[in-house]
């Protein structure tokens, strides 16, 4: 999400290894919209279904609907029993794995293997530096050779040289700015998988998931101070404070950790820059809680990673003055990626105190450092570096006396465990079992309270023995009623409700309802028009979920979500059950485009459905659809 190493996650998985397939944004990866055997069309079958005729059998989505409407009351799901293998102590696993922390990494392999523009940028900067230095040296030589000339000639030469060097500097700036624009443009077109590779580089994602994910910290030393500068900066924070309505507590925290105590010093109302910077001068840390609201670059990063992981990806920005610490030691309920943007910060990581805190589901209270023992990782992050650590890892960070620190923490996999899935699965199974099996509706034994309960736990009597056997028998029968896919849908909808809206590339905007070409000038001058020849696909992966109900198909979509956490409810479109073929055709083809004409059904109706999906921002066209 593993191979010769024992994972701490083995505590929570039943007794066999579980593989995770979480790619959502690559043709070679599975998508939230890429179905499983239970009802969705796989990408490999897309081309075969593009020209389906009316006589072909019902497709996978329609079959799912049929199974839902006409359920077999005695349907059973067989589960392969897991082997009962003894696992080593979790703390032993942590001590062994984390004693083998991955060594510091330099940037050479990164430059060779990933994003050649990084190496190109360094080359351009070096070339520009040489040009400027050479021109400046030539000017000095020219001036030395002409010392005997008149003062007026020297002044003219100096002016000419200054103008020449200024022109060179301007050329350097123009080239650098143009290169930065190209680099940002390249970044905006990267998929979630490619951006995750950027975060990890030069470590491969395969190695990361095999050796570090949910097992141990990973410290990546790049020695490239400018590597992470695209995402955020102190200058950008200052601009946000000046131009946006940033609210204390909702958007920004002022925190300090002194004498073993963490304090939050938030005033009420708007965070004005003069007040915030005074707190900073006094040694307080500034935490921007949801930078994706204010910074397009952060929204791009988190939204793309959200597509890749299939869960909410959040972020916080932390600015800490020199010689300071903002937060007490604690652990979190998220997988954390610390991306150092500016300056330096000293990090100490400690193992969970007990097995209950391994891969924690809830964040901890503040802790005291003297109670934590020796750190398992003790490193200074510098600009360009990255640090990963799993849920439940205790951590604290402080700045050095000679440098401030600015970093962004990317957080993910909150409430995305097997336990969270089973919280959905078991109630659904129980509801179905009660409905379909009379054993679950039989009355409890007469006066059962006399032999059940904590006060009766040591009681020995036939009635209690029979009660325990019946409970075990019912629990075994409960397995026959599990609704694996319905539970999955419920958990996915919970995640989608938390999602940020998609980040759109310029091409996505131009080829979707979000384009700005339509306008009013006494009459509508331009409009979008979908025709039978139009090619369409999802505007971004992972933005829809089709849920069959008893009398309709519900298409939930996150396009209209807010960047502010759960500010608006998840939207839903409702279609007839007869539209199953059309919805599968249009929604499950990503990343391939499909032609409207080849969709099943009546031409007028297929265009109407395509228009509806397009007009709600779910579909985009291959080319802009603006008609004059």
TrEMBL record:
Record carries keyword Iron-sulfur: no
The JmjC domain, residue ranges: 284-429
Key words of the record: Chromatin regulator, Dioxygenase, Iron, Metal-binding, Methyltransferase, Nucleus, Oxidoreductase, Repressor, Transcription, Transcription regulation, Transferase
Region: Disordered, residue numbers: 21-62
GO molecular function: histone H3K36 demethylase activity; histone H3K4 demethylase activity; iron ion binding; methyltransferase activity
Keyword RNA-binding: no
GO cellular component terms, A-Z: nucleolus
Cofactor(s) required, per the database record: Fe(2+)
SUPFAM superfamilies (UniProt xref): Clavaminate synthase-like (SSF51197)
Annotated GO biological process: methylation
Polar residues bias spans: 26-44
Xref: InterPro entries: JmjC_dom, NO66-like, WHD_RIOX1
Root EC class: oxidoreductase
EC number: 1.14.11.-
Gene3D superfamilies according to UniProt: 3.90.930.40, Cupin, JmjC domain-containing ribosomal oxygenase (ROX), dimer domain
Free-text cofactor note: Binds 1 Fe(2+) ion per subunit.
PROSITE patterns associated with the record: JMJC
Localization: Nucleus
Function: Oxygenase that can act as both a histone lysine demethylase and a ribosomal histidine hydroxylase.
Family according to the record: Belongs to the ROX family. NO66 subfamily.
Name of the featured protein: Bifunctional lysine-specific demethylase and histidyl-hydroxylase
Organism encoding this protein: Hydra vulgaris (Hydra)
Annotated gene: NO66
């Amino acid at each position: 999400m593993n191979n010769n190493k024992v994972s701490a996650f083995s505590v929570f998985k039943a007794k066999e290894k579980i593989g995770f397939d979480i790619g959502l944004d690559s043709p070679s990866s599975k998508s939230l919209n890429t179905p499983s055997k239970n009802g969705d069309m796989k990408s490999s079958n897309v081309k075969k279904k593009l020209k389906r005729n009316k006589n072909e059998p019902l497709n996978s989505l329609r079959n799912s609907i049929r199974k839902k409407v006409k359920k077999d009351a005695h349907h059973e799901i067989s589960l392969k029993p897991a082997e009962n293998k003894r696992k080593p102590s979790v703390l032993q696993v942590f001590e062994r794995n984390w004693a083998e922390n991955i060594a510091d990494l330099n940037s050479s392999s990164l430059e060779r293997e990933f994003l050649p523009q990084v190496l190109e940028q360094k080359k351009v900067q070096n070339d520009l530096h040489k040009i400027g230095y050479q021109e400046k040296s030539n000017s000095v030589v020219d001036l030395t050779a002409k010392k005997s000339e008149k003062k007026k000639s020297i002044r003219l030469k100096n002016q000419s040289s200054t103008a020449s060097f200024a022109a060179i500097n301007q050329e350097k700036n123009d080239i650098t700015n143009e290169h930065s624009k190209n680099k940002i443009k390249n970044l905006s077109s990267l998929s979630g998988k490619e951006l995750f590779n950027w975060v990890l580089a030069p470590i491969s994602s395969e190695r990361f998931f095999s050796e570090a994910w949910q097992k141990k910290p990973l410290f990546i030393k790049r020695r490239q101070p400018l590597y992470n500068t695209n995402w955020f900066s102190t200058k950008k924070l200052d601009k946000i404070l000046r131009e946006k309505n940033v609210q204390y507590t909702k958007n920004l925290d002022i925190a300090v950790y002194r004498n073993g105590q963490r304090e939050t010093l938030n005033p009420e109302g708007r965070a004005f820059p003069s007040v915030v910077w005074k707190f900073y001068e006094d040694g307080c840390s500034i935490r921007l809680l949801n930078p994706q609201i204010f910074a397009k670059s952060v929204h791009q990063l988190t939204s793309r990673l959200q597509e890749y992981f299939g869960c909410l990806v959040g972020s916080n920005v932390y600015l800490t003055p020199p010689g300071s610490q903002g937060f007490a030691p604690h652990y979190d309920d998220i997988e954390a990626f610390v991306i150092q943007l500016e300056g330096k910060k000293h990090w100490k990581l400690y193992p969970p105190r007990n097995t209950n805190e391994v891969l924690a589901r809830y964040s901890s209270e503040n802790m005291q450092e003297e109670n934590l023992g020796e750190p398992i990782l003790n490193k200074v992050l510098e600009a360009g570096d990255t640090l990963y650590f799993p849920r439940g890892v205790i951590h604290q960070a402080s700045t050095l006396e000679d440098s401030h620190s600015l970093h962004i923490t990317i957080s993910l996999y909150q409430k995305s465990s097997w336990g969270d899935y089973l919280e959905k699965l078991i109630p659904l199974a129980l509801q179905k079992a009660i409905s379909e099996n009379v054993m679950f509706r039989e009355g409890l034994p007469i006066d059962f309270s006399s032999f059940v309960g904590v006060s009766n736990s040591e009681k020995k009597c036939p009635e209690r023995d029979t009660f325990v056997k019946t409970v075990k028998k019912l629990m075994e029968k409960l397995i026959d009623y599990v609704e694996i896919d319905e539970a999955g849908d419920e958990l996915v909808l919970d995640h989608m409700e938390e999602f940020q809206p998609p980040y759109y590339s310029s091409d996505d905007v131009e080829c979707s309802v979000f384009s700005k070409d339509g306008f009013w000038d006494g009459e509508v001058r331009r409009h979008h028009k979908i025709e039978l020849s139009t090619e369409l696909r999802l505007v971004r992966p992972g933005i829809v979920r089709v849920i069959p109900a008893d009398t309709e198909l519900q298409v939930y979509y996150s396009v209209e979500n807010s960047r502010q956490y759960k500010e608006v409810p998840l939207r839903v479109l409702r279609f007839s059950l007869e539209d199953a073929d059309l919805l599968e055709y249009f929604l499950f083809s990503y990343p391939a485009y499909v032609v409207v004409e080849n969709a099943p059904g009546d031409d007028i109706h297929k265009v109407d459905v395509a228009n509806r999906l397009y007009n709600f921002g779910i579909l985009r066209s291959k080319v802009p659809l603006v008609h004059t």
